[in-house]
Amino acid sequence: MSVAPRSTIGQRQPTRMEVAAGATLPIAVLVGLVAPRSFTYLSLLISATAIAAAIKSGSLDSGRQIPWRMPLFFLFAFCLFSAASAFWSPFPGATIRAALLFAAICGFSAGTVIVISNPLFQIDRRTGAALSFIVAITGLALVVDIYSMFEIRRWIVNGLPLRMNILSPTMYRLNGNAVTSIDPSIVNRSLVSLAIFIWPALYMTAIATNTRYFSVGLYLIVLLACFLSGSQTAQLQMVLSTVAFLASLVSDRHARRLLLVAWVSACALVVPLMTGLHGLRLHKSNLVTVYGEGFSPAARIAIGHQYATRVIEAPFLGHGAAVSRELKNSSTSDHKMPAHPHNAYLQLWFELGAVGIGLFMGFGLSMINMIIALPSSLHRFAYAQFASAAVLLAPSYGFWQPWQTGMICLSVILMVAARCMHRAY
């Protein structure tokens, strides 16, 4: 991959505060990959250091080069509508808490993105090298962890002076004060995060090393970790994001159109899709059941059908943000549901109706169109990253899980930081 020559904007060296702000990015990735739930809080740290660096360097009030207006409009409208749904939610407290936490994480992250997209803000080249190193080391550690059937992790945990009651009983099997086995799904959050972080890391690697070989090795490490694991979500992310990357190599315009169609389809057609799959009795199919051992697509089709049939109860405004889990836990509910439908698009239809999913779809469309404002050499990496994040939302976690929101926001920050490095180097 060719790297653009240093521009006139990038002539000055980063200030110490800008170096510190850049250093928080690989540190945040490392902390998040080791303890994924910490992604919830990392946006505050990154935002604080980025704003402090911008104030110190005098670049806070300079012009912007990326058109953030439309994505920010749709994001603000979505957050506002999510919070407003507390007025008709059967669990207003849970709704407002989820909506405000989502808005806070996105708000801090948006502030960081706006600051570092400033044409005068500098990201040190060592940031890219550090990020590449962390992704590579974490990927290799996961490969060893998975290949050893978590025996090394079990040995380490048993050797630490820990109170065993702090360990998750769903992940760690205990016999007295000793861990006897570890659930393989313990690495799933780290793997789905790696499947998104790999794309900005690959671009930063090309800039930091000016060679393709390390980039290819980095990609293969993450690919191996995902396919050695039992996380079909991470595997699907890697496959489809790679398709988006390769499509962009063939035709940037056609790749963008493909993403636009896929995004609209995921948002608009998920309800009839779930109803149709259930109507075809695919949840009873032996092929689906055998393929889905551990992944349970058959169970997810059945769960998705439960939610899809209830969308019609409140098709425009939905039942209220984050009510799915409350409906499951409520002893007074007449319609107990699974905690979430394992599909964020279907969950938004159920909880926020056509208005909510329409705003979310508008946000995604504006993000895809905004990629045009990035350097052309960065397009294919941004398309692949968007595809990976969109795939993650389809078969996996509940939409309002704050660690997932924080992780996706961090990936956007990393891509903008990659653009900042492109500008300077």
Written description of the protein model:
By secondary structure, the protein is mainly alpha-helical. 68% of the residues lie in helices and 2% in strands. The chain has one domain (16-424). It has helices at 16-34, 39-57, 69-84, 92-116, 125-147, 151-159, 188-209, 213-228, 232-250, 252-268, 270-279, 286-291, 297-310, 323-329, 344-370, 376-393, 402-424, and strands at residues 172-175, 178-182. Strands 1-2 form a two-stranded antiparallel sheet. Helix 1 (16-34) packs parallel to helix 5 (125-147). The two termini are 13 Å apart. Mean pLDDT is 86; it is low at 1-10 and 287-295.
What is the rounded distance between the termini? 13 Å
Order of SSEs: HHHHHHEEHHHHHHHHHHH
Helix content: 55-70%
Strand count, sense and closure of the main sheet?
2 strands, antiparallel
List the helices and strands and how they pair.
Blueprint: H1 16-34, H2 39-57, H3 69-84, H4 92-116, H5 125-147, H6 151-159, E1 172-175, E2 178-182, H7 188-209, H8 213-228, H9 232-250, H10 252-268, H11 270-279, H12 286-291, H13 297-310, H14 323-329, H15 344-370, H16 376-393, H17 402-424
Antiparallel strand pairs: 1-2
Which properties best describe this structure?
single chain; 425 residues; two-stranded antiparallel ribbon; disordered N terminus
Summarize the structure.
The protein has 425 residues and is an all-alpha fold.
